[in-house]
Design a protein that fits this description.
Blueprint (H helix, E strand, L loop, with lengths): L11 H8 L3 H9 L7 E2 L5 E2 L2 H15 L4 H11 L7 H34 L9 H7 L12 H5 L1
Length: 154
């Protein structure tokens, strides 16, 4: 069904430009329900209101803060009900902060291990490369625990 938008709407290109977001991301957020389905003009082109611009800016900023899509969904639901108490928002943000602090700690351990390993490499042949040697045998690491690595970035 084509709904006729008012004249105050913008296309997906302008929405993407104003929010520093790719059109594919806009469509993805629509598909998963973070953004409402766009109005369509007579040519079946998506049209967006200023409210959608603000909502997408909120989503992008929350994602920049590292909130998951599910957490953003919760935050949007709470933002859509401004008279509710904000203790749930506070709780969600505190949990996220704890996760960020944990990731930072794991990344610091990872940095130390990489610095130590790189400093031990003499730059000769791969056959004698300390980096390859350490990556091949975790027992050669200075830390007993997992480093976090790519997992720490999530």
């Amino acid at each position: 069904m084509t709904r006729t938008p008012n004249t105050d709407t913008i296309g997906i290109g302008e929405l993407a430009s104003r929010t520093h977001c790719k059109p594919e991301t806009v469509r993805y957020y629509e598909r998963i329900g973070l953004l409402p389905d766009a109005l369509r003009n007579e040519g079946n082109q998506r049209r967006y209101s200023e409210t959608t611009v603000q909502r997408l800016m909120f989503i992008r900023h929350a994602r920049d803060f590292g909130f998951s899509v599910d957490a953003v969904r919760e935050l949007l639901d709470m933002a859509d009900h401004p008279t509710r108490p904000c203790h749930h928002v506070d709780s969600l943000a505190r949990r996220h902060l704890a996760e960020v602090e944990s990731r930072i700690q794991r990344l610091m351990v990872l940095r130390e291990e990489l610095e130590r390993t790189v400093a031990q490499c003499d730059g000769n042949s791969v056959a004698q490369c300390r980096i390859i040697e350490v990556l091949s045998d975790h027992r050669l690491c200075g830390h007993d625990t997992a480093h976090g690595g790519a997992e720490a970035l999530r």
